[in-house]
Amino acid sequence: MFKIIHFYLLLTLTLISNAYSNIEIKARTAILQDFLSGEILYEKEPDISIYPASMTKIMTSIIAFDLIKSGDLSLDDNFIVSEKAWRLSTAGYSSMFIMVGDEVSVENLLLGIITASGNDACVALAEGIAGTEEEFAILMTAKAKELGMENTNFSNSSGINDPDNYSTVRDILIMSRYLIQEHPKFYEWFAIKEFTWNRTGGDPITQGNRNPLLYKNLGADGIKTGYLAVEKYSLASSLKRNGRRLIAVGSGFETKSSRSRESSKLLTYGLTNFDLVEINRFDKFVGKVDVWLGKENQLDIYVNENIYKTIKKAKKRLLKVAIKYDSPVEAPIKKDDIIGKFRVVYDDELVGEYDLLAARDVDKVNIFSRLIKSLNYLIWGDV
């Protein structure tokens, strides 16, 4: 019977160095997440109900992006603008300024939604996809449930005031993360600073992106502002700097200037208060294990996923990583057989455990070779 041996391998960790500070965000509700690790770095009443206002348009865009990805919609498809869509451009709402009867491409409607925050463009897109805005809202809510947005319901495509159109900053974060992760090329559109629409019967209209963080030296590249009198100002935002991405959502800012200032402060807090640690890359081996009765004496092992951890700088020395397996591993071994466990410990607490996998097949040696190896093991302890 083989003796069970535990091997502990301390890894050299790649750290993005930052400084620590305390913070209070002047918003009714807010949340901050490190994108790669998925860890929440700050939260303030993240599950209280909000009216998402124009942050609703993130989901409107997602529905279109999903359909484009599946091949059921094209950027070149044209939708005819209805009177309902047009009327939003005459009612004082943020608008793309499309006209009744215009045939507008999906691409232009999406740019009008993302950059100009056009409520009229939202309705035109919704009706073109689902027939009515009400049916489109059903698709939006179904997608929200699919993503795990447990406290969200959508009743319209633009976020205009409706008590049945509600969410939370945590749910808006989930939605924003999905957009960035699943549609990275389309997400780049959220960094576009202005959009020009060659409207029917008038001069072209150029409108700037309403996201104030795009005009600051933060590295911000999205995503969407919002405003309703009952909710005050809101913003879902994201930045990427030095390979690290943060996502923040806040709502209930008292003024436009406080929305910009406090959102910047929240994102900066994430950059300066925490270290991002790359613990494992799925395409790299984490070590080798000894093989018993195999045609090879050692085998590379790996973990088939990227693993990141976000920690306070002052506590980075408390993070440890180990591999654990029964040694030696007996052949035959098939690629991706589970060999042991990859364990992440932070401050003496197990915070993650992952399967260690065989990187390739190892066949068993023949009877004669097995006899020789067994004698060597008994005499010398070699495998």
What is the top-level CATH class of the largest domain?
Alpha Beta
- Strand coverage percent: 25-35%
**Treating each run of at least 4 consecutive H or I residues as one helix, how many helices?**
9
Distance between the termini: 14 Å
Give average pLDDT, whole number: 90
Q: Tell me the CATH architecture of the largest domain.
A: 3-Layer(aba) Sandwich
Q: Specify the structural class.
A: alpha+beta
Largest sheet: 6 strands, mixed
Question: What is the CATH topology assignment of the largest domain?
Answer: Beta-lactamase
**Contiguous uncertain segments of 5+ residues:** 1-21
Output the strand order for the largest sheet.
Answer: 15-17-18-13-12-16
What portion of residues is helical?
25-40%
CATH superfamily of the largest domain: DD-peptidase/beta-lactamase superfamily
- Characterize the overall form: elongated
Spell the H/E element sequence. EEEHEHEHHHHHEEEEEHEEEEEEEEH
| Rg, Cα atoms, Å | 27 Å
Structural domain tally: 2
Strands, count: 18
